[in-house]
Predict the structure.
Amino acid sequence: MRIAIFGFGNLGRGVVEAAKQNPDVRLIGIFSRRDPEKIGAKPVDIPIYPATLLERAKHDIDVLLLCGGSAVDLPEQTPTLARDFNVVDSFDTHAKIPTHFRAVDAAARAGGHLALISAGWDPGLFSLARLYAAAALPQGKSYTFWGRGVSEGHSDAVRRLPGVLDARAYTLPNEAALDAVRGGETPQLTAGQMHRRVCFVIAAPNADRGEIVRRIREMPAYFADYDTEVNFVTETEMARDHAALPHGGSVIRSGRRGVHRHTVEFSLRLGSNPEFTAGVLVACARAVHRMRARGEVGCRTLLDVAPADLSPQSADELRRTLL
């Protein structure tokens, strides 16, 4: 399977490493809107091309992995590129997924291609965990807790604001709420009662810091529903204290059957959010390649993918080793 990367930030760099761990995958190139000559820490064995050359490579790419941000990049890029390529993206603004799906589905069908959106751990693997748990315990309640960790999508959204040079947005779970749910309780919790946000921002020298704080705290679908703390830091402090990109979380469902209570939990603890997400993208590219070979077109999510299509192992190997 021949894949290519569109967008070379933290997620794109993660895809480079993930491709090396999958012998059935060949990464043929990286396409960037930046000048390839100005990109630092380039992989030694993978060519980087300007994005303007992507059209010429369409017949050499089986699946194009889109590694831009959800706030601005993917809503435009995925529908545009799905007309000419089989694509996978990691769009993670939960409330806007239905709208994104419809736009991508129309574009992919018009071009006769297959797209898989919102591939990652949430949305993605956590979506599957919520589905499996609810199917097994139909009378119950599901909760999703994130963090403590750096949200790439939220960080990218803050970096897009005028006057912001760099940013990290952390999601922190409410530990008391998390402990109650793990203990089998099923409280009614708002988003703000389950989590809080903490941002660290490098502001431009003449930026209006008060305006930056206001725009962060009022940003819909990202921070508006949460208690959000904003801290301004120097470049030195950012590099020293916030270079790592850990994340994780848990999906928990509690329910009753008869007199017994049951709790299902699926958890992740990630040393690097983009590195792990990149691994999910590559697995989803494999699934898209197989599904397209069977004639499928349009848009899909992980909820629509047969688990075996994600694995490099054959069906016989999976039955022998995993069942």
